[in-house]
Amino acid sequence: MGKYLAILFGLIALVGGVLLVVFVWWREFYELVFGCIPPLLFFGGLIALIAGISSLKDAKRTRQLEEEADLEEVDAEGKSE
Count of CB atoms within 10 A of residue 21's CB? Predict the structure, then answer.
């Protein structure tokens, strides 16, 4: 019985929240949503910038490791002959 009451009260709260947002607090909700957009863009851009820099560093390190491995192969071939 408790599960059904939870579902029922959840639906009532959901409908009540939607009605309050639409008919009573629409302007405040609208301002809140549009007030969140600039920080989301800022932090999203910051995360993308950090990810891009990290990717460039990884690519540079990978290239250096490949060059070192190639030099070691050439050096090992020269010593074995």
Answer: 14
